[in-house]
Specification:
InterPro entries: Bact_response_regulator (IPR050595), CheY-like_superfamily (IPR011006), Sig_transdc_resp-reg_receiver (IPR001789). This is Response regulator. Keywords: Coiled coil, Phosphoprotein. Pfam families: Response_reg. There is one protein chain. With 227 residues, the chain is an alpha/beta fold. Strands 2-1-3-4-5 form a five-stranded parallel beta sheet, with helices on both faces. The longest helix is centred in the middle third of the chain and has 36 residues. The chain is elongated.
Length: 227
């Protein structure tokens, strides 16, 4: 069963949160509300999110300050942030949003189809990264188990590597299709960069698996670090 991604919606106005939920409900993911920057930071302490939709104009801690706190935390600094604002003060205001760590900056009223499409890209990238981490963790566990096994289990590593190679091939195929989709749609630079980062991690894992094949002289120590 595929676990749903979580999307954090941050806005001090309940009607805006309701509108965002209506727009994004079609993605069939878990939508989490936060009515202030402080509430958003609290939610980020315990849950992992695929993307954050953050209102700029909020009483107390505004969107810029909230984003700065998010980017300072190691746990949350890589979560994509899409700023939403009802006002437009020109290029300087937009630049401040990007400087705060936003991957996109959308002025209200926004096109629901465009917003949903942008969010769906980051959700898909998040799911691909989760799948890659799961495959890497499975490989490590199996290799550790095989290191303590012997006798009748001596032939198991070869079958394990073949199974993991097949699973990795499926992820590689999906990542390649996603990259082509981003190129065709002229997606945001941040989304393209994230997809490229995912492909580099997949390449590292593929090299590690190839090195573990019998006769290559490889070993478990060649597994790439996952970030």
């Amino acid at each position: 069963m595929v676990q749903k991604a979580k999307i954090l919606l941050v806005d001090d106005r309940p009607e805006n949160l309701l509108a965002l939920e209506a727009i994004l409900s079609a993605l069939d993911q878990t939508l989490v509300r936060a009515s202030s920057g402080e509430e958003a930071l609290k939610a980020l302490l315990t849950d992992d999110f695929a993307v954050i939709l953050l209102d700029v104009q909020m009483p107390g801690m505004d969107g810029f300050e909230t984003a700065a706190h998010i980017k300072r935390r190691e746990r949350t600094r890589d979560i994509p942030i899409i700023f939403l604002t009802a006002i437009n003060h020109g290029p300087h205001h937009t630049f401040r949003g990007y400087a705060a760590g936003a991957v996109d900056y959308i002025s209200k009223p926004f096109d629901p189809w465009v917003l949903r499409a942008k969010v769906s890209v980051f959700v898909e990238l998040y799911m691909k990264n989760c799948k890659l981490r799961e495959q890497a963790a499975l490989l490590r566990l199996q290799l550790e188990g095989d290191g303590h096994a012997g006798g009748e289990h001596e032939k198991e590593p070869a079958g394990l590597l073949a199974e993991l190679s097949a699973r990795l091939a499926a992820v590689e195929e999906q990542a390649e299709a996603l990259s082509k989709q981003l190129d065709d749609e002229s997606a945001d630079a941040a989304a393209v960069a994230t997809a490229a980062h995912l492909e580099r991690k997949l390449t590292g894992l593929r090299r590690a698996l190839d090195a573990l094949e019998p006769g290559t002289g490889g070993g478990a120590g060649v597994l790439p670090a996952q970030s």
